[in-house]
Amino acid sequence: MSELRNYHAAVWDEPLVMELSAPGRRGNVPPAPIAELDPATALPGAVLRQAAPALPEVAEPDVLRHFLHLSQETMGMVGISLFGTCTMKYNPRVGEQLSGRDGMAELHPDQDDSTLQGLLEAVHRFDLMLRGLSGMDRFVFQPGGGAHAAYTHTAVTRAYFADRGELEQRREIITTAQAHPCNPATASAAGFDVITLPVEEDGYASLDALKAVLSDRTAALMINNPDDMGIYNPHIKEWVDAVHEVGGLCFYDHANFNGVMGRLRARELGFDACMFMLHKTFGVAKGGGGPAVGAYGCSEELATYLPGPLVEATEDGYVRRENPRGVGRVREYLGNLNQVVKAFGWLTAMGADGIREAADISVLANNYMEVRLLELKGVTKAFPQMTKRRLEMTRFSLEEYTAETGITAVDVQNRMGDYGIDAFWLSHEPWIVPEPFTPEAGETWSLEDIDYWIDVLAHVLEEGRSDPELVRTAPHQQVVGQLDGSSLDDPEKWATTWRAHRRKSGRG
Amino acid sequence: MTSSGPWAARARVLGIVVNPVAGMGGRVGLHGTDGQVELARARGAEPVAPARARRALARLHELAPDLDVVVAPGALGADHLPDATGWRVTVLDGPEPGAETTADDTRAAVSALVAAGVDLLLFVGGDGTARDVAGAVWAVCDDCVPVLGVPAGVKMHSAVFGLTPETAALAASRHLAAPERHGTRQAEVVDRDAAGDVRLYGTVQVPALPAGVQPAKGAPAPLADDATALAAEVAAELEPGRLYLLGPGATVDQVGHALGLATTPLGVDAVCDGRLLAVDADEATLLDLLARHDRATLVLGVVGGQGFLLGRGNQQLSPAVLRALAAADPAGLAGILVLATPAKVGALPEPVLHVDLDDPELAAELAGYRRVRTAPGRSTVLRVET
What we know:
Chain A: InterPro entries: Aminotrans_V_dom, GDC_P, PyrdxlP-dep_Trfase, PyrdxlP-dep_Trfase_major, PyrdxlP-dep_Trfase_small. Chain A: GO terms for molecular function: glycine binding; glycine dehydrogenase (decarboxylating) activity; pyridoxal phosphate binding; transaminase activity. The structure holds two protein chains of two kinds. By secondary structure, chain A is α/β, with parallel strands linked by helices. Chain A is built from 16 helices and twelve strands. Chain A has three domains: about 15-70, no CATH class; about 115-350, Aspartate Aminotransferase, domain 2; about 350-480, Aspartate Aminotransferase, domain 1 (Alpha-Beta Complex), CATH 3.90.1150. Chain A has a seven-stranded mixed beta sheet, sandwiched between helices. A three-stranded antiparallel beta sheet of chain A has the order 10-11-12, covered by helices on one side. The radius of gyration of chain A is 25 Å and the shape is globular. The model of chain A has no long low-confidence stretch (mean pLDDT about 95). The longest helix of chain B is centred in the N-terminal third of the chain and has 15 residues, at about 50-65. In chain B, about 55% of the residues are buried. Helix content of chain B is about 30%, strand content about 20%. In chain B, helix 7 crosses helix 8 and helix 9 (about 285-290) runs parallel beside helix 10. The radius of gyration of chain B is 22 Å and the shape is elongated. Chain B has twelve helices and 16 strands. Chain B is an alpha/beta fold. Chain B has two domains: about 15-205, Probable inorganic polyphosphate/atp-NAD kinase, domain 1 (Rossmann fold), CATH 3.40.50.10330; about 225-385. Chain B has helices at about 35-40, 50-65, 105-115, 125-140, 165-175, 180, 225-235, 250-260, 285-290, 320-330, 340-345, 360-365, and strands at about 15-20, 70, 90, 120-125, 145-150, 185-190, 200-205, 245, 270, 275-280, 295-300, 310, 335-340, 350-355, 370-375, 380-385. In chain B, the strands form four sheets. Chain B has a five-stranded parallel beta sheet, with helices on both faces. In chain B, strands 10-9-8-11-13 form a five-stranded mixed beta sheet, with helices on both faces. Chain B has a four-stranded mixed beta sheet with strand order 12-14-16-15.
């Protein structure tokens, strides 16, 4: 056991910036507008607003202090964050430096192609690299995240069947209970009926269940493998074949690619399309760290329907072109290319051997964790009868611990925050395993980090036995204590703007 | 840290009462044991409840070795405790019940357990026992004490039982670990009356935990909303001229409501062209209706927490009725519409549906994967086992 370090988060009770506002206070006073360009005279009256916008009026040091405090009230995105399914790997600073250079940061997407050759080359070469990893025939980077890439697939699926005159008939998209929830959600948003196959005793849905629902109404299968419990479905090729037999398409949601990078290729398993998340698997920041990219790749046949514009290498250099039979736009321009450039840098540095080794390390690290975690009294593994090794993560359960102590997984998660450990991942909902938690070690955390994380968990579990109140009422050393989550799903309570906050809190 | 305030820990108290003669009628062809113990014994019945009580309590002791337990005396409870090291056991005062325990003994024990301030009342029995328990709890304090049943009767229609004695123990342990976190839900106590009709006898609070799996935090939409939307979609699809048999259960009953019909949640109703042809129909009525329609669809719900599709609470859908359905419509059995909300599917201990028919050949025809509609535009597929 490591000796646990003392930790206490900064507590500032920081007000909202709007609450710091004082009329007339300024940080920076720009010169008055040139008379003939003054919006008040230059713009038509109909588009001028009647009242000034409610912007915070604060001095420069107030602004600096405010944001410094807010930054101190985070855990900094470099803590030991083993947040399963999110692959919270370290994002190399060199990527930030690359994308912050003028040659990237100062570009505008409306520039002529001839002035964007370096960027377009990076996009094209990264497309080629992902083709190499997946066996697909072309990638686009417009989707702003994994769910957006899944949605792109449903749009492509619609276009593909509409072209074949089968869209009226092919109304069903099949997924599984442990695929990422974006798969049923995007299928439904695109107007398809959704069939969710349950997870059975092997830890994945059964081929027989799939066969029971396949028909000439099947449009597509959308599936993760391994799923969100680190369990790899070994029958996946038979699944794909069965779907193809009835004329459906197969989409591989590679949200959990980290354990199989360089070890398998979606196209070789028969998939028609796949998705990589550059902001988790490919070394690009996620969460509060920056915008995301869901790289969507597909076969030549489906490439006809890709959203535009596409990047082509021609004899005269790189060009952007429209895709005449494609689904149109899923996002403006080419997507978050600053993130594509970071991922291109990361993958170039890693190389094919490097990412394969990274995949192996992430599986090894998880299995090391699993052995240590299962030695802790009260910790069990989901689907224990499925004895094959989990890949890059394992779904654990604190059910027995909760029965013994009354302390839940959420309590334990809260208390670990008191030791400076980021919240662990529980499980997507609905929970099929009671009191779940799902850490993912990845390849970037040191053995010392992983051991420290486990030591903190072990310590908290013991605290729950000797002083359950301490754990049940945690966190105590954090920025805030327990939150009342009861209003999180209540549109009458939550607010994302100052105006809504004032209205809903009865303050204005 | 202080130990006061809303999070203050206190030892949870479990109350236990066992109906030792419950379930005796089952194997000897009686549709219950209430008032028929003598007859059951005469036909050679053996007690079944004590063994099931011991299974549940042994598992509970493994899961929750540190508990305060209040138990009814003798055969009503104390006789069936495991070697309960770690449990602080209080046996209720009162005379040892005689060899022939009665419903009065159960009710008296429940009153005393409620008065003792138990946090959960675990009873072992069937629907008849559930009625006695519910009645006695209400007589003291409405539905103030959560109740959980260890299944040991002939009939277990009430939504208060674990699927098995062991899952009842699991649910009890998890509820006792953190009652305020999981909360309780209202559950119906139903039983067949003297005329053989299924009747609602009351409600009790049961731990909100389903037998196997805790539902999500930040819970999904309430059951009623899901069921209503699904039922509206189904109601809009009904074909003219086709006979629809709406099975028991709240979810299927919503289809009747969507059609503006006064269907019953506890029985089988028959609908055709927007008209209610029969309410709470018995087997003979159903056979008669099927003989007069050449197209028919059966709409079934799933017994919550148990996964029963046929054979619990819907025995009027007898093998004869099901065969008539198949005869009326070539797709009769394959075309059975099964409705269950995502919450209900998620609460099943495993993704399996059960069919319990006294006709193994017919049951085998129903086995295999079956589509279950869960919400508008959403479905899953569950394996039917017989």
